[in-house]
Design goal:
It is a single chain. The chain has 273 residues and is mainly beta. The protein has a single domain, classed as Porin (Beta Barrel), CATH 2.40.160. It is built from three helices and ten strands. An eight-stranded antiparallel β-barrel has the order 1-2-3-4-5-6-7-10. Strand 6 and strand 7 form a beta hairpin. It is elongated, with a radius of gyration of 34 Å.
């Protein structure tokens, strides 16, 4: 009797275990047929080290205040440059660009930048000579005046890439979308003949750079424009009579040495009371 009772019990347990194993095999993902499971974006970022807390450079919630400024002047007195002789001129160039940004994520900031520049040139005399004094061509420019002002506002996005784990040096990539306007006045000869110009500019640019902390909150930044798309429109009115228009577009994929910027920035964490 005992054998007759044990045998059916063992048989029932074996059938139950086999059914559970078959059910688990049916519900498990078939990796052989569908291939490996694709990695999520967070897993990919973790493998690259973008989410590593040891690589934290700008924490979430930090504010960035900074900007660049430059001023230069020039004066020429009977100066000669290549084929241009007798240059008498003076002028200046002023440029300021404040910046404000907020770290919406670790090592990522969104913000805005305002750019204003003003350039003045007064040319009293300049002579351009081709050939000798008897049979050559001479072009003389006198009493030339030019004043140009540009202003623009840009929305920026920054991604910081720390260099090592010392949290003092980091690379960054800045993308900006900007729009602005220009005003210019040109005058020459006597009696005066003048031209007034207005226009606007739309641009999308990428500017990588490097940041280095000098103190706990103050940093020095250097960036350079390497890529950009720009569209310009200008309208000129000459002597309040003649009207001219100019449209230009440019796609640039090279380093622009004239767009190198050096500035200071303050990284502050505001305390909430």
């Amino acid at each position: 009797m005992r054998k007759l009772f044990i045998r059916p019990l063992v048989l029932a347990l074996c059938l139950s275990a086999a059914a559970q194993a078959l059910r688990a095999q049916e519900t498990a993902p078939n990796t052989d047929a569908a291939g490996p499971v694709p990695k999520t974006i967070n897993e990919i970022r973790r493998e690259r080290g973008l989410t590593d807390t040891h690589n934290l450079f700008v924490p979430k919630g930090q504010w960035v205040f900074g900007g660049t400024a430059s001023y230069s002047t020039h004066t020429n007195d009977n100066y000669k440059f290549l084929v241009v002789e007798g240059i008498d001129s003076k002028g200046y160039t002023f440029r300021i660009s404040p910046l404000i940004a907020y770290a919406v994520r670790d090592n990522m900031a969104l913000g805005g930048r305002f750019i204003y520049s003003r350039t003045l040139l007064k040319l009293d005399n300049a002579e351009l000579h081709f050939g000798d004094s008897e049979t050559g061509t001479n072009i003389v420019a006198k009493d030339y005046y030019a004043l140009r002002q540009t202003y623009s506002a840009a929305a920026i996005w920054r991604q910081y890439i720390p260099l090592g784990r010392n949290k003092r040096f980091a690379l960054f990539n800045e993308m900006s979308l900007s729009a602005g306007g220009t005003q210019a006045r040109f005058a020459n000869d006597s009696p005066v003949k003048g031209t007034y110009e207005t226009g606007y500019t739309l641009s999308l640019g990428i500017s990588p750079g490097i940041v280095a902390f000098a103190t706990n909150n103050m940093a020095v930044e250097v960036n350079v424009g390497v890529m950009g798309i720009t569209y310009n429109h200008a309208k000129q009115v000459h002597n309040q009579v003649t009207v001219g228009n100019r449209n230009t577009s440019m796609m640039n994929f090279k380093v622009n040495i004239f767009s190198i910027g050096l500035g200071m920035a303050f990284y502050l964490s505001l305390i909430h009371i």
